[in-house]
Amino acid sequence: MPSIRASNSTFPIRAILGVFKLRIGVVITFTALAGLAVSSGPSLSLLQLLVLTLSVLLSSASAGAFNQYYEHDSDLLMSRTSKRPFVTGELRHEPVWLLVIAALMTLSVGAAWIALNAWSALFVFLGAFFYAIVYTVWLKRRTWLNIVFGGLAGSWAVLAGATAANPQLGVVPLALALVLFLWTPPHFWSLAIAFRDDYAAAGVPMLPVVVGDQQAANTIFLSTLALVAASLLPLLFGLGAIYGVGAIVGGFLFIQKAWRLTRDPCRKSAMICFHASLIQLTLVLLGAILDAQSGF
């Protein structure tokens, strides 16, 4: 096992939970369950549902751990990430962590392949690959488009859930995957405005670093309009009133906060917009699940 420096019995749990970014993993798993809910395929058995949930969660955890392992030097330069376990030394930065990460990834993909199907396993893999390699290694330090393509991780999770029930993808799961793709940039760019100085110090070309806060805020607003428009597409292909309420209420809130951000592109407005994006996504995903299960 990787070396852990612990001062008390509860410490390893806290450190490990932090390095695997389990809060993000829970959100990614929620998107997969939404993809499953809107799929036209047969219901999964309880075992298959458990495998899907754990596969997506573990693959996301492995990608999150790799992100922190790979970026431990630059994390030291940012106030937002300076307390991460590899930075503080709570967890030793040792190559054995790569074996743990690879084992988790192999376990999650293999379980999905055996219990579900090859398509679902592929999308489980792609979700982790896009976050760990495409975003973290290839794009993050090279282009402001990093989060645009790296954000496909959430889209792949939707498709992993959808294909778990039916390898033949329907229009609604694809539309929901598009929503996740369009959601990630304005969500993350809002956070990047709040922590622009951090990203600049670390040499990461996030959009606000490249074009400034005002232009970034304008881009967030336009991106949010595109996102909300896309979030209404599932209404044309089978989802009903419950989903519509969630998409409209969440979309209105996000647009309102994004507009206010263009009027005052400061840290406070950026964080308000960031939290509005989380509410919007929650309402969309929860609306999709409830609507699909309601039978209306």
Automatic annotation (TrEMBL):
Keywords: Cell membrane, Heme biosynthesis, Membrane, Transferase, Transmembrane, Transmembrane helix. Its EC number is 2.5.1.141. Signal peptide: none annotated. It comes from the Bacteria. It is an enzyme of class 2 (transferase). Pathway: Porphyrin-containing compound metabolism; heme O biosynthesis; heme O from protoheme: step 1/1. It catalyses: heme b + (2E,6E)-farnesyl diphosphate + H2O = Fe(II)-heme o + diphosphate. The chain crosses the membrane at residues 20-40, 46-70, 96-115, 121-138, 145-165, 171-195, 241-259, 271-290. Converts heme B (protoheme IX) to heme O by substitution of the vinyl group on carbon 2 of heme B porphyrin ring with a hydroxyethyl farnesyl side group. This is Protoheme IX farnesyltransferase. It comes from Candidatus Accumulibacter contiguus. The gene is cyoE.
